[in-house]
Amino acid sequence: MTSLGGSPASTQWIVQRSSLASRIGSGTLILTGLALFVVPQIFDTNVVQQLTSLLIFLILAAMWNALAGYAGLVSVGQQAFIGFGAYGTIFITQQGVQPYLAMILAAVASAALAAVLSLLVLRLRGGQFAVGTWVVAEAIALLVALDQGLGGGTGISLRGLNVYPREVRTAFTYWLTLGFAVLLLVLLFLLLRNRTGVALQAIRDDEEAAASLGVRVGRLKFVLFVLAGFGCGAAGALTLANTLFIQPQSIFGVQWSAYLIFMVLVGGLGTFEGPIIGAILFFVVQYEFADLGAWYLIGLGLVAVAFALFLPRGLWSLINDRLHIRLLPVGYHLIQLSKKAVR
Amino acid sequence: MNWINAIIQGLFLGGLYALFACGLSLMFGVMRIINLAHGDLAVIGAFGVWVVATQAHLSPFIALVPVLPVMLVVGYLLHRTVLARSLRSGPLTPLLTTFGLSIVIQNALLQIFSPDVHSLGSLTGSISTSSWRLTSQLSLPYLGVLTLAVAVLLLGALQLILQRTGFGREMRATAQDPETAALVGVPASSVYARATAIAVATAALAGAFLAIHSTFDPSSGPTQLIFAFEAVVIGGFGSLWGTLLGGIVLGVAQTIGATIDPQYSILAGHLVFLVILASPRGRFIATRSASA
After folding, report:
1. For residue B51, what pLDDT band results from cuts at 50, 70 and 90?
2. Total structural domains in chain B?
């Protein structure tokens, strides 16, 4: 935002929320979202399965970004909710519930878990919050591994989905994933578009200053933590549906946090568009390089460190700073009425 | 008798956790950051000692002599290259960079040393297996006593440095207000770099003791970071002796958990941590650190 210092007091200003670019951008996003629903009709099962995992990354990146980019909460423990969503689905199907319904219920249960855990971990700040969430994830993983009914440490498969033919199963999983992705992105958009969006960005920039201006920091952090718990729980349940088998060590593994940090840092922390770019990029990187094992992870770590140090607002900032484009109308632009437009 | 034994073993395990925790506590106290690569730096130290001890056929305790100064330099350079820059870009960046670094270190070690599990216990000779027998069922292992003694000495030395020396005064001043400290001629970045150097060297020392006590592999770091963090939180941020107490509480919780069932060992530690966090004291953990 430019300072108003030099302008005469009489100048008229209006606040503009959307621009041509954001109208085109949101139109394209909505069309892409709609177009994605017909993918299972056109492409074969493998493509659908790959796209499902891309959408799961997108959900996770958007959730981690909501926490770190807007509420200033760097979590290293979102795998707690990913694992809880997956194992919740297993547990609920064991009670005789249809698997797809069980996934939705498990996501809701993850949100409830987040609401309870927020009482503990939101007492912590900064690095303490980061490691605190990690401890919670480890504790839940240990508890799950103790339960023989959930397969113990060796893992368990999701049984109820075997009754459907593979094409039908992947298509339904894909639609459910897309549904969750659209729902979560719309929720985030609404949060950012409304008054809460300004408050959240104020928290991101300076928590104490925001609180001193009357922003209810604690309540907003709670809302985002619960939303992220819901989203990550859904992502966990969908990962299970996509792979049909899970083990506590991998679904509760801290490598999820490494992936999330990579996606959001590279895409653009604290922007709506960044996680989308980051998820697509990570999907491609994983597809190309995951076979390299340790070198792949070394590369991911180095790239994440480099972005944190040299381009902390990610790739999206390169586009945004030069062209001043926002794909979605979540910002505010000041337009001077009499003279040329001022940003 | 089983329980008393568990408590004694936990006491010594607590010494090890306090060793891990004091570097974490120091960096948090001075810089307000948590180094998420702390455990992995400790594992680097353990591998360093392992390489020196096996190549030169030395006792691990002697192998520490060349490794610790190297780790001081590593810590100093870590701050000058990565952390200093991270600190300038806001409170969240150090978390992201140290987490990225942690992934890099783990996988680099995996690439160099393979995922094999190592131990230094066999290289130390009788000290890692002998113990003083008090009664037929109760014994004090030499190694446990040594670890606890080293932890007490290290924490005492750090306390003395902080309270009595010029560098300690600079650290305390910078922790309270870096800008004002800089005004009177104490540049924060230099203090931070030296504090990081000390923290990394203590981490390496802790890593070596872990390697003598039990086993280590390239992915041992995160667990040790978590234990160190739990010890710091249980003991209360900002107090070095509290860290020792926190380490002991954590160690005793784990050994008592393990006495009930080996599967409960680590879980019991996590639960104690969560209970402390849920207790009325937990509310002040963040505010205490935010005040300075």
Report:
1. very high
2. 1
User: Any idea which fold A13-336 has?
Assistant: ABC transporter involved in vitamin B12 uptake, BtuC (1.10.3470)
Q: What number of C-beta contacts closer than 8 Å exist between A and B?
A: 137
pLDDT tens, position by position, A191-247: 888 888 888 888 887 888 888 888 888 899 999 999 999 999 999 999 999 999 999
Contacts 24+ apart (CB under 8 A), B64-73: B64/B205, B64/B208, B67/B204, B67/B208, B68/B201, B68/B204, B68/B205, B69/B201, B71/B41, B71/B44, B71/B45, B71/B200, B71/B201, B71/B203, B71/B204, B72/B197, B72/B198, B72/B200, B72/B201, B73/B197
Low-confidence ranges of chain A (pLDDT < 50): 1-7, 340-343
Q: Could you give the ipTM of this predicted complex?
A: 0.90
What residue spans of A66-165 are helical by DSSP H?
A: 79-94, 99-121, 126-146
State whether A309 and B93 contact (CB < 8 Å).
yes
Q: Determine the distance in angstroms separating the CA of B91 from the nearest CA of chain A, rounded to an integer.
A: 7
The reported pTM is 0.89
Query: Distance, in angstroms, between A292 CA and closest chain B CA?
Result: 11
pLDDT exceeding 90 applies to what percent of chain B?
Answer: 65
Does the distance separating the beta carbons of A300 and B93 come in below 8 Å? no
CATH number at residue B93: 1.10.3470
End-to-end CA, chain A:
6
Contacts of B283 in chain A (CB under 8 A): 123
Model confidence over A95-119: pLDDT tens digits?
A: 999 999 999 999 999 999 999 999 9
